[in-house]
What we know:
By secondary structure, the chain is of the alpha+beta class. It is built from six helices and 14 strands. The strands form two sheets. It has a five-stranded antiparallel β-sheet, with no helix packed on it. Strands 4-5-11-10-7 form a five-stranded mixed beta barrel.
Amino acid sequence: MCHAYSITTNVEAIRQMVQTIFRFDVAANIGNLTPQTGVYPDMLAPIIRNQPGFRELIKLRWGLPTSSQALYKQAQDRADRIAKKQGRDLTAEEFAELVRMEPDRGTHNVRNTKSAHWKRWLGPEFRCIVPFTSFAEVSSEIGPDGKKLGNTWFAFDDSRPLAFFAGIFAPQWTSVRKTSEGMITTDLFAFLTTNPNNVVAVANPDAMPVILRTPEEIEIWMTAPWEEAQKLQRPLPDGVLQIVSIGNKEDPPEDEEPPPTFAADDDPQPSLF
C-alpha cells in the first residue's frame, strides 16, 4: 500500500492546471501551500473535492475511518489486556466506553470498494482528487549494504510532474484519532489502490495508487455514477512511472533540489498531461 507521498508544487500551479487542462475553476480555501516532501498518514494534505455548486482546494487529514468491526476487535484485545492486568473482567459499561474511545488512526488506502464500510462514500458528492508529485512504496529488497531498501519513490519522471490520485473524503467524522486529542470531529480523505504495474511491483507486488491521467478520467471520477467511475480503479500501463529515489523518508531527498514552484503569472508546473 502507498504509505507516503510528496506534493511539492504550490496553490497557483494547481489552480492553473485545473483551469487550463481540466476546464473547471476551484475555490482555494487553503492559504499558503508549502512544499510537503513527505506526507504520511494522519497528516494534513491538499485535495480538490466536490462541494454543492463548486469544487474546493482544501487541506484534510489523511486516513478515512477504520471499519467498526476492526475497531471493536482492537478494543476487545485491549480489554483482554486490561482484564489480565487487573485480574477481573470489565463491566459492560466499561467495555462500551473502551469501544467508544478506541483510537482510530485511519485507513489511508481503499482497495475493496465492494465493502459495505466504503459504499457510503463512493458517490460523486464524496469524490476528490489528491495532487501529488511522487509516492512511496516500502521495498523489502536487500540493497548492496545488506539493509532493506525501504521507501522506493515513484514519479512520472525526474522532474516529478504534478499528477492526481483518485480519492474519496468523509465529511465531519467524529472519532478519537489520537488518545492525546480525545474525541474530535473533522473531514478525512484517502485514495484508492489497485494492482501494481510492472514498475511499482518491483517494490510492492500487491498494490499501487489509482492515478488519473487525463481530463476525461478526472471528469468521470468527479461526476459519473459509481458503475462507470469504478472502472478507473485499475493500474497504470506497464512501463509508466519510474523510480526517482530509494531509501529516503522524503522526496526529493534533502540533497536534491525540489522542482521549482511558480508565481501566479508564470506557466504552471509541468504535468503529465
